[in-house]
Amino acid sequence: MAALAGLDLAVPKGTVHGLLGHNGAGKSTTVSILTTLLSPTSGSARVAGHDVVAAGDAVRRRIGVVAQHTSVDELMSGLANLVLLGRLRGLTRGAAIGRARELLDQFDLSDAADRRVDTWSGGMRRRLDLAASLLTRPEVLFVDEPTTGLDPAARRQVWHAIAGLAAEGTTVLLTTQYLEEADSLAERITILRDGVVASTGSPAELKSRLGGHTVEITLDDAATVDRVAGLLGGAATSSTVVTVAVEHPARDLVRIGSSLAGAGVEPVGLTLREPTLDDVFLQITEGAA
């Protein structure tokens, strides 16, 4: 079985493109090919205008990679890390120091520049990883699971940094298991399933394909769930929740509330809900779409 089959992916310059899929769907293989770590057995791929096989050196000069796990030395300071990596990438010592200080300032890390990285928070370390990938000003940045293990505040800081890079013209290919992350950052999303593209579009387009809103009615017990499901008709149920698809959210919410009141049912909760990217992902990857 091929790891990838018929993958067609085009990412406009200066945008964030999300690449989603279950483990084994082909995300890592795609990134490995685009970063020249693997050669495709057929087909072709170009990054920043250069063929990944015929012009691998040119591709590598134009890309940055933020791996899932931190790539910096935690026993060195943030500044020392960036200067060392800059030197390894061919910058003179003066240029490496200047670029390192510029990036530390850009990612709001200057105050901690001379402290060992093992004293930094997780969010600060992740921003340092991003800074390290930008030392040679890549045209295309590959970001793998950028906020795994981070708290919500640190996650938002990393999101802000990635969005800022795209706004400045960097093209970003983002792989993530956090659907909220893809929804927040990506202008377009490709969902892979078993090595093929299962769906692609903007977050709004993907969500719209599931249909309209639903009303979720939370109840006290299973008997009441069955009663309400029979009352409303066409409803899906779980242990304590009845879910009803609606076409006219405001009007139908009032109608459902009136029906429940007329039947003497007082729900624990009544929630109008839009489809989420989680809903899209589950439907597509489980084979229902």
Question: What features would you describe in this structure?
Answer:
With 289 residues, the protein is of the alpha/beta class. It has 2 domains: 16-207, P-loop containing nucleotide triphosphate hydrolases (Rossmann fold); 213-273, Alpha-Beta Plaits (2-Layer Sandwich), CATH 3.30.70. 40% of the residues lie in helices and 18% in strands. The protein has helices spanning 27-34, 56-62, 78-88, 93-106, 122-133, 152-167, 179-185, 203-208, 222-232, 249-262, 277-285, and strands spanning 16-20, 46-47, 50-51, 63-66, 140-144, 171-175, 188-193, 196-201, 214-218, 236-237, 241-245, 269-273. The strands form 3 sheets. It has a 6-stranded mixed β-sheet with strand order 4-5-6-1-7-8. A 4-stranded antiparallel β-sheet has the order 10-11-9-12, with helices on one face. Helix 3 crosses helix 4 and helix 5 (122-133) packs parallel to helix 6. It is elongated, with a radius of gyration of 24 Å.
| SS-derived structural category | alpha/beta
Reported for the largest beta sheet, the result is:
6 strands, mixed
The CATH architecture classification of the largest domain is: 3-Layer(aba) Sandwich
Strand order of the largest sheet: 4-5-6-1-7-8
Tell me roughly what share of residues is in helical segments: 25-40%
Q: Report the CATH topology name of the largest domain.
A: Rossmann fold
